[in-house]
Amino acid sequence: KYEAFKEGAICKDPPEYYNYTVQSALEILYIERKIDESPICNETMCNCTISKEKEKVKVNCSNKGLVKLPGAVPYKTKVLDLYNNNIKSLNIDHINVTLWSDVSFLYLNNNAIDSLKGLEGTWLLRNLVALHLSNNSLTEIPIHILEQFRGGLLDEMYLSDNPWTCDCNTVRFQTWLQDNYRAVRNFQGICCSRDSVFSNQPIHRLKKSQLCPQQEQLVNYLDVLNGLIAITICIIIIKLSYDYWLQKRTGKLPKFFSLNL
User: Which domain of life is it from (predicted)?
Assistant: First the structure.
């Protein structure tokens, strides 16, 4: 049952759709039907719930022993919780792009993920608002993958409790963390692996010279060399300017141009 108003028809019955617009109620009913039809939304697989206010779906597939990302999710899935499974790869070649198009909150804590290469250059990486990757097997993330989050929607990222490698390659990762401190949460938990020289030390607190002492020393040598070259160039320019001024004033060539005949 519904009543018509200027802004559209408003539901009066059944009670759970009271004061919803007919359009919203029909959309919710359609989403509920899609949830019922989804193969992963059942008692043995995942718990699928709908937020009627936002007309979005949350899918909870935690603790289900999954070894890869589910290929299909219900229509309008916004939040996908895959906490505490056995997922190792984030390869998305097998997923249904249309059904995944609304996924923007991806929770992958407590898995076995050791790389983000599967997300490299993908639409999913750019769509994500929240990405939780705490307590996985990540040792490094190439900077070119991290840079792909730039300009995207990412607002919340967890990377703590991973066995991060700490060496010269970590310097750029450290810089990226510092540049994205608003989005990256739990800085204190992003630590070097126990096998590292800097065992369990927060990466953001380490000095670049500690992470890569040879690189730091090389940079210092190059700075000295560049300084000497700059000074030499300045001396040559000053000498040439002086000789030019002297030649104009006296008509004599500089001494090192004169010939003893």
Answer: Eukaryota
User: CA–CA distance from 260 to each of 65, 223, 232, 255 (Å)?
Assistant: 93, 42, 28, 10
**Are residues 180 and 149 part of one domain?**
yes
Give the pLDDT confidence of 109-154 residue by residue, as tens digits. Answer: 999 999 999 998 888 988 999 999 999 999 999 999 988 887 778 9
**Do 247 and 174 share a domain, yes or no?**
no
User: Can you tell me the distance from the alpha carbon of 206 to that of 212, in angstroms, rounded to the nearest whole number?
Assistant: 10
- In the chain, at which residue ranges do the beta strands (DSSP E only) sit? 2-5, 8-11, 47-51, 56-60, 77-81, 105-107, 130-132, 156-158, 184-185
Q: Rounded CA gap, 107 and 121, in Å?
A: 20
Q: Which domain holds residue 236?
A: 221-257
Pairing of strands 77-81, 105-107: parallel
Residue 169, C-beta contacts closer than 8 angstroms, at least 6 positions apart? 140
How far apart are the C-alpha atoms of 65 and 26, rounded to whole Å?
Answer: 35
